Fold:
Amino acid sequence: MAVTESLQALLRRRDNDHRGITGRFEVENSHPWHTAGALPTRPNVSVVIPAHNVEYCLPAVLDALSAQTTAAEVVVVDDASTDGTAEIARRHTAVDQLIRLPGHLGSAAARNVGAVAASGSTIVFLDADMVLPPHVIADLAARAHEGAVLIGFRHGIDHGAEPPDTPDVHADHRVRWRPPVGRPLLYSGIVLDEPVDGRPLDHTHDLLDLGFGRTYYDWDLPRMVVTALLAVPRHALFEVGGFAPEFGALGWGMEDTHLGAKLIAAGLLVIPVRQAVGFHLNPPDAAALWQAKLASWPATLRHYRSLLAAPPPRRSALFAAETLRLLSRCEVNR
Structure:
């Protein structure tokens, strides 16, 4: 039977009580959920990295993947880079597959192609500017669950700056958040009349309180799903039709939020893994790039709102067929 409820209506009916999953993990492994060190018994993970003109940071990202305590398949999808990105990936021993798109199609299309080409039952989406500590892939693999989306976090590092010894989860806006006062917030449009020292993760009890479509100021559960570091069951990704590639044509943002909304509507729970934190290596032109991203934000947000008002797509077979057709037009190395 076709789903006729809107995506927004379905989100309001989904809880996010993930204590059954986290509690069972702690009992079975005698290990806290938010502590590094648990090793997966049967790791079956593929890391998918969309990459476009990232020669400034990709070597460090791949070196960090080589140093992980648990091995994972690594698939780099080069989104028609014009610098040395593809050559770096081609030569690096951490990379199992290098796929070059036939044109600059955007990160959503790149992630879809990488997920279809990957063999793991869990797909870890990793941005090409995220350097992971050695334990992170093992932590995600040990906690992977067919009913859960696992979110990691990022600690931004200015270009050329020396990072600290370990990344700090509180550097991520989803953990420590200080919004502007007196102007509309980006996502919700609400205007705050006094400063807020926000703790989205703490104040929502690890996102438990964001079920049923509830919000924390400018945050809701789909917006917590950020592909900088994200683990998703491959079957669920296919079931909901992957990423919507049209977001790339509109500009920056919302494609990961939309994926999160579809996965939540399909019944998956969103669970933070606080120790899964990577260094986000900002580019040399970070300030100008951020302004360009903000300029396209209204268009992508409008499109996301329109998709919320429609029923979610159920297009797993179509998604696989369309993405395989795109993959057949790509240059595949290794």
Notes: The chain is about 35% helix and 20% strand. The chain has a mean pLDDT of 94.
